[in-house]
Specification:
It comes from Anaerovibrio slackiae. By secondary structure, this protein is α+β, with helices and mostly antiparallel strands. Helices cover 38% and strands 24% of the residues. It folds into three domains: 1-20 and 103-238, D-amino Acid Aminotransferase, Chain A, domain 1; 21-101, Dna Ligase, domain 1 (2-Layer Sandwich), CATH 3.30.1490; 240-399, Succinyl-CoA synthetase domains (Rossmann fold), CATH 3.40.50.261. The chain starts with a helix and ends with a helix.
């Protein structure tokens, strides 16, 4: 789960982290009032969306008067901001952060993430902070410093001090920098974060160490422990299909393509996406129906995949263990019935290739053979099924 920058800063502030004073605003009037309250010589007007690269995309403005705050707020609210993380469709700006300016002397980069290879948390730092950190990592990897943290003992003071020296903080602010690192680690652990990213972490001309920007991501599996974090969720920033799927107990991720896939198990889902790409297809989604499906759940999965017309074909790739192939088959029939009733059509509007293996496979195949569903084709193998659905989608596109 992601939250906005101003929310991230509120969380960090509760752990004693130094962040600029700022106030969220949802209207132009609120933005101007916030600037009045801050009473800063320089006011920063920042678009709040769940994506990085806002500065380069024109989503961060420096105002030196209330009139400029009003001008920039008017410009940004309602604007579709396109960054390297949003994709070409961009994200609409619905809220702003009005923040006091900082007298920046030097920018740094600092983050905490989970490292699966070592089963540790890794603190990543660089003296080359700012908007081009990805470029630094690609072109000057020696400037990216890593400190691995054993979760059983936590971040030790000597590790934070070592990181501060390697990042070339000047002696006058070493203690402030290390204290900031320790507090950020406390926030990472205390709120079950999957990522804490500060870019930039700045030293001001007054030798203050401030988290000028902040991005916090949270482990969904730990959210039950943090109802305060759940309340910060902005559903307008999330894919409607992903929200719909989550409410139905399905794991869905939109991948933007046109060949939808429904599987059981995350490993099989990733393999299915890979094999669709291998045969020249463009996967529309990652959809794992889990290990205990019902016909109703399968029917809902079909509705989600077909919603909005994104999917031009569907590949059902099931290896039944706990899931039973006959239940999957019944779900496909139920989906066709529901879609027909809702749309007045004669069933599923796009080609569906079904590969079934495992528990009750013969019964599942018999259900679909004895009572065939329009546009549903059986495939004996995973490879053959993937190749077939890609060919059908391409043929439909050619004939469209």
């Amino acid at each position: 789960m992601n939250i906005h920058e101003y929310q991230s800063k509120q969380v960090l502030k509760s752990f004693g982290v130094n962040v600029p004073n700022g106030i969220p605003a949802f209207t132009v009037e609120e933005a101007v009032e916030a600037a009045k309250k801050l009473d800063s010589k320089v006011t920063v007007v920042k678009a709040q969306i769940h994506a990085g690269g806002r500065g380069k995309a024109g989503g961060v403005k420096i105002a030196k008067s209330l009139d400029e705050v009003k001008e920039y707020a008017t410009e940004l609210l309602g604007k579709v901001l396109v960054t390297h993380q949003t994709g070409p469709e961009g994200k609409k700006v619905g809220r702003l952060l009005i923040e006091e300016g900082s007298n920046i002397a030097k920018e740094y980069y600092l983050s905490f993430v989970n490292d699966r290879n070592t089963a540790k948390i890794v603190m990543i730092g660089s003296e080359e902070g700012g908007m081009e950190i990805e470029k630094v990592a690609a072109e000057n990897p020696e400037k990216i410093i890593k400190e691995y943290i054993d979760i059983s003992v936590g971040l030790l003071p000597f590790q934070a001090t070592r990181m501060a020296y390697k990042m070339n903080f000047k002696p006058e602010v070493i203690r402030k920098a290390t204290a900031t690192m320790m507090k950020l680690y406390e926030a990472f652990i205390g709120k079950d974060c999957s990522q804490v990213e500060i870019n930039p972490l700045v030293v001001t001309a007054e030798d203050d160490v401030i988290c000028l920007d902040a991005k916090l991501n949270f482990d969904d599996s730990g959210l039950f422990r943090h109802p305060d974090i759940v309340e910060l969720r902005d559903k307008t920033e999330e894919d409607p299909k992903e929200l719909w799927a989550a409410e139905e107990g399905l794991n869905y991720v939109n991948l933007g393509g046109d060949v939808a896939c429904m599987v059981n198990g995350a490993g099989l889902a990733m393999a299915t996406v890979d094999i669709l790409k291998y045969y020249g297809g463009n996967p529309a989604n990652f959809l794992d129906v889990g290990g205990s499906s019902t016909p109703e759940k399968i029917a809902t999965a079909f509705e989600i995949m077909l919603d909005g017309g994104q999917a031009k074909g569907i590949f059902v790739n099931i290896f039944g263990g706990i899931n039973r192939c006959d239940v999957i088959a019944e779900g496909i029939q139920k989906a066709a019935q529901i879609i027909a009733e809702k749309t007045g059509s004669d069933g599923i509007p796009v080609p569906v290739v079904v590969r079934l293996e495992g528990t009750k496979v013969e019964e599942g195949r018999k259900i679909l053979t004895d009572n065939p569903v329009k546009n549903v084709i059986m495939a004996p193998t995973m490879e053959g099924g993937a190749e077939k659905i890609v060919a059908l989608v391409k043929e439909a596109e050619k004939n469209a």
